[in-house]
Amino acid sequence: MSSRERILGRVRRALADVGGEDAPVERGYLRTHGGLDAGRTVDLLAENLADYRALVHRCSEDELPAVVGRLLLEHGARSVMVPPGLDPRWLSEADAERVEDRAGNTPHELDRVDSVVTACAVAIAETGTIVLDGGPDQGRRRITLVPDHHVLVVRVPEQVVSSVPQALERLDPARPLTWISGPSATSDIELDRVEGVHGPRTLEVILVG
């Protein structure tokens, strides 16, 4: 008997009393904690994002183009990656070359891009996590991993949930999900925090609502 067969056998024995592959799984855990209203949930998201060293901004829908343009200017961005389904009004006041997200983009092309602007699928207040699912206004996963500066727009309160279980109910597990909790960072080497290792060094989140 191979190792694979032994492991699968143990799994089958452990699941023998479940009642078959289609049996419902009881999920008795709490889905939310604290019973916060929508406004306080958004505040918690902003607090946890900042705790992860993301830069958080708030504005109205009408103010969004000016805020995006200002953030790109302050970062010195001469080029910005644009997902195909991004609302063009968001970049109407941005003075930077638009680079379209295309299947043929090479790693060198992506590396030359200064910034990327995307929307998101959902944001989780309790963990300060924002999830992208590769939708038209988010683009391919790689465009949010290579450029050094990511401006991420969250529509509040409709895209904000309290907990991970609530987020999972909104997400399709078959899509390419990217879970972002602050700028890319690691502390693997001598416990020194280093940012920008496998993703953007600077994450700016705009809460629009």
UniProtKB/TrEMBL annotation:
It comes from the Bacteria. Residues 46-208 form the LUD domain. SUPFAM superfamilies: NagB/RpiA/CoA transferase-like (SSF100950). InterPro entries: FTHF_cligase-like_sf, LUD_dom, NagB/RpiA_transferase-like. Pfam families: LUD_dom (PF02589). This is LUD domain-containing protein. It comes from Streptomyces phaeofaciens. The lineage of its organism: Bacteria, Bacillati, Actinomycetota, Actinomycetes, Kitasatosporales.
